[in-house]
# Entry
Amino acid sequence: MTDKPLLASGIAAPAFTLPGDGGSSVSLSHFAGRKLVLYFYPKDDTSGCTKEAIDFNALRADFEAAGTTILGVSPDSAASHDKFKKKHALDFPLAADESKAMLEAYGVWVEKSMYGRKYMGVERTTFLIDARGVVARVWNKVKVPGHAAEVLGAAKAL
# Structure
């Protein structure tokens, strides 16, 4: 279990550089001067993660109009992200944290339990980071229905 607690509002977002889809590299510094929706999800192409990605993608133009970029992060490989993006026509970047260092820095790599079995995994969490790189809002233990629209509302208000 990670010993790092979930980041809170008002804290500077930890810097990161990760492999992205399409052979790119993604860093927090790439988003300086823009708001960033940083959402962590457990696994490419699973039902909840697919629904969440499609919901964010459907609102991408509205996020852009609000000066906000979307970035999804999971422990899957960049190659897995490429397939996931292509299959679901996703038009925003995905980053791969196979080492789980960023997941731990943000406090989303946690001990989970299913059917009495304990294991480590990603707690579905979204951070809204302001244009200065400070965490403005956190949604933890996210339930997918309506989540992307709620995040959009917060981005517009920020």
In short: The beta strands are 17-19, 25-27, 35-40, 68-74, 94-96, 109-114, 117-122, 125-129, 135-139. Residues 35 and 157 are 11 Å apart (CA to CA). The mean pLDDT is 95. Residues 17-157 form a domain with the Glutaredoxin fold (CATH 3.40.30.10).
